[in-house]
Amino acid sequence: MIALSLAEIAEIVGGQSHDIPDPATLVTGPVVIDSRAVEPGSLFAAFRGENVDGHDYAERAVAEGAVAVLATRPLGVPAIVVDDVQNALGRLARAVVERLGTKVVALTGSAGKTSTKDLIAQVLQRKAPTVWTPGSLNNEIGLPLTALRATQDTQHLVLEMGARGIGHIRYLTGLTPPRIGLVLNVGTAHIGEFGGREQIAQAKGELVESLPKDGVAVLNADDPLVRAMASRTEARVLLFGEADDAAVRAENVRLTEHGQPTFTLHTPTGCSDVTMRLYGEHHVSNALAAAAVAHELDMPADEIALALSEAGTLSRWRMEVTERPDGVTVVNDAYNANPESMRAALRALAAMGKGRRTWAVLGQMAELGDEALVEHDAVGRLAVRLNVGKLVAVGGREASWMQLGAYNEGSWGEESVHVSDAQAAVDLLRSELRPGDVVLVKASRSVGLERIAQALLEGFEGEGAVR
Q1: What is the DSSP code (8-state) at residue 102?
Q2: pTM value?
Q3: How does 117-153 read in b/e, with b if 16+ C-beta sit within 10 Å?
Q4: What gap in Å lies between CA 392 and CA 400, rounded to an integer?
Q5: Model confidence over 114-142: pLDDT tens digits?
Q6: Which of 199, 231, 269, 463 has the most crowded Cβ, counting Cβ within 10 A?
């Protein structure tokens, strides 16, 4: 974070100083919410969670080097006391961003946010110092923590914004007002909470509504609900996609023999060829979104194409591809799942596994509400249509719907099985995998199927090749 005195911070957040010997003491390290992450010069924000109260770790944080604690009560250590720590954290983030004048890029969407954010970060980092959301810390706590990592040198701040209801993105944009707002898609993730795709579009569109007149709304031309958001902003609109009227578009899209996308990138300043290191055709749209943002920040097409071709995966368990020495390829995409990302992952598996035996080890997609049965059934049917060698549906009711969908789709679905838990899936795979097989592991984060991928790689640490 930029250096601020405790007196300045107290004024910004409207807090009272307690047990602070010298209000001129500077916070020079990061703002953290985990005492184990404290560095010398940190500010420790004490949040009260369901199981842990950060106030109980205040002394430890100060002992580890924090210069003060942001808290809701005096603690006997240097503290700035506020009524609401989350509100104070947001006010501090906004003040820091305003002082820096950093160009803020915000993005949202139902699927692909984190992968696209990672691409944007890697492209822009080649141009100038860039700070971006780590992993999926895209909520009312993670976003200000990311913004507070910016320093005097930071020129680009890339922020992923998530939403579980109307008003969430509006709140986030109020903390860090963006100049460039990117909307990727409107799908069915969290549809059980929102109630329908129109409501999801209403929530995601809050991003473009926040843009200033001299800002830019970067919208997916291939998604009708996103394209329609052009009417909700006073900012200039830039379309990306495969549509003919997209200013940033892809032509000659195909997959390599390993399932990696290759295409010709077109931007208003030129065109250049891209061959990605990532897997699956769905990354073409993500790459175009990143290219559109980079174009708006004055990067030429050839530099963008080179950066996209060299970009890798920054966040864990998102199409992590590891080839074991025995020839088995494990694709760990278990961080999260929704119908759109599940379909994309299955298509990527089919492309990667041409000429090889493929396994789709899949679990529940959460928060689908009344659409859960239909969507899980559809995933099972798609696995059959794509000629996936074997579907292993892991878990309870939703997994059984997936397996039944595969069985009902046709004779190929007889290769599908339903197992009760991750260990049962591991036991099955260990007994039946053979060299050359490709295994995809995917489910919603709450299911924890990453344990299956990790178990399949045990004993191969340091030997497997990450592709």
Answers
A1: P
A2: 0.88
A3: bbbbbbbbbebeebbbbbbbbbbebbbbbbbbbbeee
A4: 10
A5: 999 999 999 999 999 999 999 889 999 99
A6: 199
